[in-house]
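Internal ticket - ligand job 311, flavin-adenine dinucleotide:
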Amino acid sequence: MQKKNEPVARELMDSLFERLAPCCKVLAQEPMCRHTTFEIGGPADWMALPASATEAAAVIRVAAESCLPLTVIGKGSNLLVRDKGVRGIVLKIGEAMASLRCEGEIIVAGAGALLSDVAKFAAQSGLTGLEFAVGIPGSIGGAVFMNAGAYDGEISSVVEQVTAVSPDGTIREYSAADIRFGYRHSVFQENRCIICEVRLRLRTGEKEAIEAVMADLTRRRESKQPLEWPSAGSTFRRPPGYFAGTLVEQAGCKGLRCGNAQVSEKHAGFIINAGQASAADVQELIRRVQERVKRHSGVDLWPEVIILGEE
Ligand SMILES: Cc1cc2nc3c(=O)[nH]c(=O)nc-3n(C[C@H](O)[C@H](O)[C@H](O)COP(=O)(O)OP(=O)(O)OC[C@H]3O[C@@H](n4cnc5c(N)ncnc54)[C@H](O)[C@@H]3O)c2cc1C
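stdout (structure tokens):
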């Protein structure tokens, strides 16, 4: 039975490749562990790597015409991809869309630019407002999608405009008000548009002072977070009135392990991949931590990490 189906599957794969390849760079059966900071995740059937909003729109059209699911990722720093991988097309906004330019107090960044590179570019350009972002390892597109923040700063405070492709393939501009930012929330979590370019409004500052703040925040991060291990950052959203890491520690979960996934000894808010952990290990550990915290303090913890892929 399986043998009989194989040529059909191959034909479908070939015809899809023929349709995707003219749109942009395409990879088949691409291991997602290469595209996540957790270093976990089975293969994506297809990975498309567009170099412009127009290319991204072309991939959306192919996915729709082929009735294939489309999953958008950036740097993969807030993702847990399941072990069976991702069916359909993963569209990665990465290095091919990472341009940076400065226009007075505005920085225009391709959505694939790393947030830390945008922050350093701002410092070199003598612009203040992005110091908080220097140690967040995602792309600027992912940062807008998540409304990433740290040390009392949030990307929402500096975004002026975003160019995004909608699921029907049209390209449109969003003002900051259109984006309806909230805690780790933006409108893009509802409308599933693909963020392609971000305009940030910063203020003129003093290069040395900006760099000193960034160096201080980097030191603080390095001393508190388990950056020497693969992870996806904070595992849980901050419950109102609490810190997730403190709740996890108080529930006695520091160091707790499932397979090779472990609650960090350095910062209980992080689950780390302590060596070849599977997504199933991480999911089971998340479940056990949620259970223990609920029993100990009565608080429900919800993952901040986004879980993707075939169950
Ligand atoms: C060590 C470490 C420290 C961290 N510290 C922080 C921190 O201090 N503060 C914080 O907020 N986060 C932190 N994070 C989490 C993470 O870096 C952020 O959430 C980041 O904004 C995610 O960006 P990304 O490009 O990696 O997105 P991904 O993880 O690739 O994707 C996250 C979500 O964004 C969507 N997405 C990504 N790019 C696009 C795009 N171009 N268009 C549309 N949707 C898109 C994806 O579909 C997915 O749903 C940390 C992570 C790590 C590993």
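Auto-summary: The longest helix spans residues 2-20. The chain has three domains: 2-92, 98-210, 226-308.
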